[in-house]
């Protein structure tokens, strides 16, 4: 289930593992300028979506047109809701989705490894608060007249692990996309997920190594969960959201992952 990229994608369905060579994506699949470090300033708006919690300030990006639109909840990395995530929310809006970038740190962001770890640990210590936050985001989106009623979560790093944990109560949403986030390998736990899972991982990630991803896929297969999971051999943790750290290595796999993600969202949220 690993590929060099040009790439062999691993799509695990109920029937088993299917190996398929991914064609080079067309120009229409080019990655958002935000992940190249070339994004325009965010054009959406701040949003207080959690009742009686003025410190929690998410970011809303809205598509053109009357809808109905699918909706996505973006879950930030360990440093909090920063402009890179806001710019990516704008990119999803440009694709026709109502995008709400959640704020799990009550308006705070980290500027160092130590600050990021502290914020992440504090937040993880109260999982009920995380669930309540994301439930509020999903409810806010579903209440919009221009939203189809279908919602998916997309998370990176810390946010990828949060997205997977939230999927264990997956009756509240229709899709989960994980970018190099913490994983589970217990089929009994994974059996609580009720929708297809998307995953993009880095072959050189020391925190989420390929062997862990393979156990995760095995658990999903045992639990009967359809999924599209891909490991990009030459990449490091964080490669997709920050292509500009090493564009020569990251651009091609990031482009493929973006094409896969858009196809996944069409499957779970509709065109």
Structure characteristics:
271 residues, alpha/beta, eleven-stranded mixed beta sheet, globular
Account of the protein in words:
With 271 residues, the protein is an alpha/beta fold. The chain has one domain (2-269): Rossmann fold (3-Layer(aba) Sandwich), CATH 3.40.50. The chain has helices at residues 83-94, 113-124, 127-142, 158-167, 187-190, 210-223, 247-269; strands spanning 2-3, 8-13, 16-21, 45-47, 58-61, 69-75, 98-101, 147-156, 175-179, 197-202, 227-232. Strands 1, 2, 3, 4, 5, 6, 7, 8, 9, 10 and 11 form an eleven-stranded mixed β-sheet that branches. The longest helix is centred in the last third of the chain and has 23 residues, at 247-269. The radius of gyration is 17 Å and the shape is globular. The chain starts with a strand and ends with a helix. Residues 1-23 have low confidence and may be disordered.
Write the layout of secondary structure elements.
Blueprint: E1 2-3, E2 8-13, E3 16-21, E4 45-47, E5 58-61, E6 69-75, H1 83-94, E7 98-101, H2 113-124, H3 127-142, E8 147-156, H4 158-167, E9 175-179, H5 187-190, E10 197-202, H6 210-223, E11 227-232, H7 247-269
Parallel strand pairs: 1-11, 6-7, 6-8, 8-9, 9-10, 10-11
Antiparallel strand pairs: 2-3, 2-11, 4-5, 5-7
